Amino acid sequence: MTKQDSLAAERRRKTIMSVVLAAICIIYVLPVLSVVINSFKVNTFVKTDTFALPTGEMWAGFSNFIKGMTFGNYPFWKSVAFSALITVASTALILLFTSMAAWYIARVNSFSCKLIYYLCVFSMVVPFQMVMFTLSKTADSLHLNTPWTIPIVYLGFGAGLSIFMFVGFVKSIPLEIEEAASIDGCGPVRTYFSVVFPMLKPTMISVGILEIMWIWNDYLLPYLVLDINEYRTIPIHIQYLKGSYGTVDLGATMALILLSIIPVIIFYLICQKHIIKGVAAGAVKG
Amino acid sequence: MKGIFKNPLRRWFWLFLGPVTAAFAIGFVWPFFQGIYLSFCKFKLVRNAKFIGLGNYTAALKDPTFMHAFWYTALFALTSLLLINILGFAAAYVLTQGVKGSNLYRTVFFMPNLIGGIVLGYIWSMIFDGILSRYGTSILMETKYGFWGLIILMCWQQIGYMMIIYIAGLQSVPEDMLEAAKIDGATRWQTLFRVTIPNVMPSITICTFLSLTNGFKLFDQNLALTGGLPFIIQPDGSNIKTTEMLALNIYNTFYNSNSASKGVAQAKAVLFFILVAGIGLAQLAYTRKREVQQ
């Protein structure tokens, strides 16, 4: 085989790979596309003509979206607001307090620190079903069952992974920087907030993204802890569209699903690099 | 120096460690130990729990729905483990060969991970029913549809995730090793199996355990896609939901059936925890051993 032949073969191979990849790519996007198509389709055609474009009598315009807004006897915008509130508040709480705790654990070598650290690592392998009943009862009796207080439950149940990741990172920061700060007269609190905290930024982003992805999509924990007649998050709202027995309006359901994944996809496209990095970091450590 | 630095920090214990410790006690430690205690009790409300020893555990192990869920989950976890890892590795391998537009493909393949399990379940149940309704059936009618439907859903969601980890692994394979293999006249397949795969073993270990625990812990997708249906009626009148996995079985024992079975449900949850934690510890032991060898 001459060199030119092998180059041509290489090029052909790459072309074939590109075609195959493009085909898989299209198949990959199809489920999302079918949501888009069906959200504009009259309900009765969703089941019979799932993969047809919504043309002619099938076209429903925006009526599915309008109907979806009050579907399931609960306004959709409220679910979105509660989801956003819970996700943002919980993530902020987790980032602030677990990073502080991790710094303390990494810098102070005491029995209680080790105990908390190993309990945190241990909590990472405990599935939610193990604690779901007792956790929801505990949260109930402490009145943590509102969107404003559920971040405390998330801080408790989600502390494991973030403490683990932060401690790993803090241990790689040389102690000399903090010692210099303390010689310059910084107390521990100021050392933490003006010296250590800024250095934790890369891990903050990774942990933050993992927590956002988890809490935004979480179904069972808020379902069991919150009073769902009053407070629903998006996953609970969507589950209840089908859970309410009787005929399900698939068109309106798809409209709501579309509305709920649009912010996620925008978030993904903006922070894609960080998300992929964060996920890889979380997986390697967890 | 260290002594001077550390002492002032210790005084701030309550500020730095206090909030997490309190929340962790509420959100994990107390529920965990209370859960273990309650698994040995008969109770309707936590207040009037009565200690009955191992009764709940024998009841759980005798429960045919639990045993069915266990084997079904194990079969599901192993099948999805194989498919997701083979396809995820293949995708990562192809995308690290310098194909044009690999960034776009990576973006698309990873995208389903951002969508939550409940939403995914409803998207796919619409798609499967759209296909199956042409043949006059539905995903809720047959166990095998539910099984393979969930496998397809999980592949769609997780291949991109595993691909990201494999790409990181593949990029750390030393370039000169691949070069040397090429100069020595190794074919593409020989290079793949003799050089590349041994070098990405750490990634393979991580992904294997990750997809195994993901498979065992699966709940949202299972609930939204089939909810455990269809069910078969046992000779004694009880019924087994044939596509119900372990996590959903525990949930249903807690909240759907008679309230007297909460103790049994908690015992199931403890057994489930031992199973999942066992897999996690096996992974830890395995990676530790490898690290020592290297």
Task: Describe the overall structure.
The complex is a heterodimer of chains A (286) and B (294). By secondary structure, chain A is mainly α. Chain A contains 13 helices and no strands. Chain A has a domain at 76-232 and 258-285: MetI-like (MetI-like fold), CATH 1.10.3720. In chain A, helix 4 runs antiparallel to helix 5 (111-123) and helix 4 runs antiparallel to helix 10 (201-217). The mean pLDDT of chain A is 87. The longest helix of chain B has 32 residues, at 64-95. Chain B has one domain (58-293): Orthogonal Bundle (MetI-like fold), CATH 1.10.3720. Chain B has helices at residues 2-10, 13-16, 18-38, 55-62, 64-95, 102-110, 117-132, 143-171, 175-183, 188-199, 201-217, 220-225, 246-255, 262-293, and strands at 41-42, 50-51, 231-233, 239-241. Chain B has 294 residues and is mainly alpha-helical. Chain B is globular, with a radius of gyration of 24 Å. Classes of the chains: A mainly alpha (286), B mainly alpha (294). At the A-B interface, helix 1, helix 2, helix 4, helix 5 and helix 6 of A face helix 1, helix 2, helix 3, helix 6 and helix 7 of B.
What is the compact description of this entry?
In chain A, 77% of the residues lie in helices and 0% in strands. By secondary structure, chain A is mainly alpha-helical.
